[in-house]
Prior knowledge:
heterodimer, A: alpha+beta, six-stranded antiparallel beta sheet, five-stranded mixed beta sheet, 44% helix, B: nine-stranded mixed beta sheet, two-stranded antiparallel ribbon, 4 helices, 11 strands, 22% helix, globular
Amino acid sequence: MVAHPDLTHSAPLSAIADKAARALIQVRRGPGLDARVTLPVLYPSGSCVGLRIGGGGKGFMITDDGGACAEADMAGASEFFHRAARETAERCGVRFDGHEMFEIEAPSEALPGFMAIVADASRRAAQLVAERQAERLDRRFRTGLADRLISVFGSDRVDIRPQVSGASTHAWLFDAAARLGERTVLFAAVTPSAVSVSSAYLKLDDVARLPGAPDTVAVLSRHSLFRQDQRLILGRTARIIDATASDEAFRRIAA
Amino acid sequence: MVDSAAIISRMRTALAAEKVVVGPLIWRAGTRPRTFALAALAEHPDQNMEVHLTAAAALPNEHVGFQLCLSVPGHTFPVTRFDWRPPRPHVNRFGPLRGLSSGTGLHPFEENAELGLAMMVTHNLPVCMPIDPEPPDFSSAVAYVCDTFRLELREPIPLPPWSPTLI
């Protein structure tokens, strides 16, 4: 590794890093005698996780103050919160009262560690809620893809959820097929989850190995969340298009 | 079915239009402990728009959220949001302003729409821009929101019923 010339003066950089690190954590007093601590742990929205610390003496109470719950409410995903938070609380070994994720009787010598555990649990719960809400949207998106293709190519040329056997003879379910003259173009909706990418790759690859294979298109939902390696993998077996692309872009990629 | 492009287009049209907030404007207990919420229709001739305000009982003169939403059958989509003196800073994880932190801030429609509808919804309008100087009091925050969201109030929005002594 080549050292960057700007990084050779360790003293000024350490001071800059120290200042930046201190800015990452904020402590405020209240409500009442409690303290509020903001940590550099991010919910899916980008809001920092905040903890309220109370008690003392025998032990401290640490709560996310309903932060994960508020994130779910604000995103319109309240229906997913209770189960996600309960599961996460069990996995992380923290308590959950239906609103807050918290720990009680944290000893003073272990307070930083307990704060990290509660903050991590709160973030994980919010992440799980976001994932479940995304899955719901993706299910609706799959239905929407077929309708979209019908509007682009016409209902007489689009088959909804056709089964196509690959070279392995396994029958795969695609989201839609467009019949364009002598050719057939198969469309598979793909989301950024690892399961979706790998299962899409399997069926696209198996079909691509057929003699006289149909053309294949992977339609990416939430395209900005796909990693480059995921795009690379899918690109080996199909053309790739963003689900929000224009009708003209869909016509071009199927041409 | 979710037709993302059509919904984003409807959001853009509705945000740009003048909307009238109809009453009664009353703060009610929120669905969670120690919170309050106020929801009202923001009347638009073609779209069902709603404005949602949230506040925390124990935190007077801070932590008020103002969110404009588009309502369609089975779904309510966030369009834009203003966080006035939130208890925790926000950091942009995505978009051209990645890494930017804000306290009081606007989650602007266009910058979030650039990320796509699914990101807007599941990541709860992840792009935020700091508003500095921030509105100094609640009524100034309401005035800023009315101007930014293009809302006309038929009656004033009352102060949230803050009661820090409950804690």
